[in-house]
Write a structure and sequence with these properties.
The protein is an alpha/beta fold. 38% of the residues lie in helices and 15% in strands.
């Protein structure tokens, strides 16, 4: 199974194209018409379609605690920053993200 990231509303949709070389089957909630969906709806969609959620929102960590996983969550704990910075962080942590997706006992990867 290929690793697919689902970028949350608080991240730029441009990340889909910018990271297509390493995460080619990824998407953004906006591109899936989930941009006005609540977090639980996004969570359910990610679970059903085998996505790893990438977010800056602590709520997805809480959903993981309440509902388990999948989906797994990459929680970007970086505050306000540029899309370039987010892209660089995800590139730097590509191996960790891939390990997360293969791991059945870990639900959240925090990146600082």
């Amino acid at each position: 199974m290929k690793l697919k990231l689902l970028f949350d509303q608080n991240l730029s949709p441009r990340l889909v194209q910018r990271l297509a070389d390493i995460f080619p089957d990824s998407s953004h909630v906006f591109l899936l018409a989930l941009d006005e969906a609540d977090d639980l709806e996004v969570w359910a969609y990610a679970r059903e379609h085998d996505y790893v959620v990438v977010t800056k929102d602590a709520d997805f960590g809480e959903l993981s605690t309440l509902h388990g996983f999948p989906p797994q969550v990459v929680w970007l704990r970086v505050g306000n920053c540029t899309t370039n910075h987010i892209e660089q962080l995800l590139r730097e942590h590509q191996e960790s993200i891939e390990r997360l997706a293969q791991e059945s006992t870990i639900g959240i990867l925090s990146i600082f």
